[in-house]
Design goal:
With 296 residues, the protein is of the alpha/beta class. Helix content is 40%, strand content 24%. The strands form three sheets. A five-stranded mixed beta sheet has the order 4-3-5-12-6, with helices on both faces. A five-stranded mixed beta sheet has the order 9-8-10-7-11, covered by helices on one side. Helix 7 links the parallel strand 8 and strand 9.
Length: 296
């Protein structure tokens, strides 16, 4: 069966599907409402399906319409990616990679990766965006980013991962704190301290792993602050609002107001992983994944 649909039909349909309101969709598209209604009727006629239910000025997607919205949204991103890649080739570039990452990945992992990659692929553009773990997963599923660097124990179906760094945790203390690396024995020495931790929204599984450190130490921590940024943690520690536990790769040796004590005698380790969508068709993605998997 052949259909005479055009790209404009798809854009019009998605506009109505997103707003569920013909007037608002028409305004968004800068066309008249009757004209938009005709285009949707034309699309329904071509497909032989009803896409919207219209009752008392309420607009709802049918089952077929819901399916079409999900699939067209996903595949339209593929088309946009293909067209963007063609434009980059015209401009003399090999392509573009969109990165998402948690802050610790930018300490060494990503800079070292990009230095190695650009030696072989100097004409690739990079977009780098710091995002929490959950935002990266959303971005990978929608293919708004091509590759992410996360601290998660589990990832959704359709995504694949490869560990790039397994590391211990560190205590973060004010510089003048009485506990030093030479006098630190175990975490129970600090059971009366206030703790500043990464927010569970940063990564629920990462948060739970940190909590098992306290479980093994025999006490429940007094958590007074949660944040998603290491810089915020360090500023709070500097000003004696509490102490913290962070991945070793987040150590900031340039900050003279805080100190770090590596927790290398506990069993817990945190893993930074590269994650990508197995359906991502960006031709550059395979090249960087080859480098990542060969290096680690």
């Amino acid at each position: 069966m052949s259909y005479q649909l055009e790209l404009r039909h798809i854009h019009y349909f998605l506009a109505v599907a997103e707003t569920l309101h013909f007037r608002k969709a028409a305004e968004k598209l800068f066309i008249s409402q009757p004209g938009l209604s005709r285009q949707i009727k034309e699309m329904e006629g071509q497909l032989g399906v009803t896409l919207f239910e219209r009752h008392n000025r309420q607009v709802k997607l049918t089952h077929a319409g819901t399916y079409l919205k999900e699939e067209l949204t996903k595949n339209l991103k593929h088309l946009e990616s293909i067209l963007d890649h063609a434009k980059l080739l015209e401009d003399g570039k090999d392509g573009k990679l969109n990165f998402g990452y948690v802050g610790s990945a930018m300490q060494k992992i990503i800079p070292n990766l990009l230095l190695k990659f650009t030696k072989e692929h100097p004409d690739v553009l990079f977009s780098l965006k710091e995002m929490d773990n959950n935002k990266q997963i959303e971005g990978l599923l929608s293919q708004e980013i091509d590759i992410g660097f996360v601290r998660l124990e589990r990832i959704p179906r359709g995504l694949n991962s490869h560990p790039v760094l397994k590391e211990p945790f560190c205590l973060v203390l004010p510089k003048a704190h009485a506990i030093e690396a030479s006098t630190f024995k175990n975490l129970s020495q600090l059971k009366n301290e206030h703790f500043i931790l990464f927010d569970p929204e940063y990564s629920a599984s990462y948060y739970e792993k940190v909590m098992t450190i306290f479980d093994d130490s025999g006490f429940n921590p007094l958590i007074t602050h949660n944040t998603i940024h290491a810089d915020s943690i360090y500023k709070l520690v500097e000003n004696n609002f509490g102490i913290s536990i962070v991945p070793k790769s987040l150590q900031d040796e340039s900050n003279s107001k805080i100190k770090f004590i590596e927790l290398n005698k506990i069993k817990q380790r945190t893993v930074l992983s590269a994650v990508w969508n197995t359906e991502n068709r960006n031709p550059i993605l395979g090249n960087i994944l080859t480098l990542i998997t060969n290096e680690n």
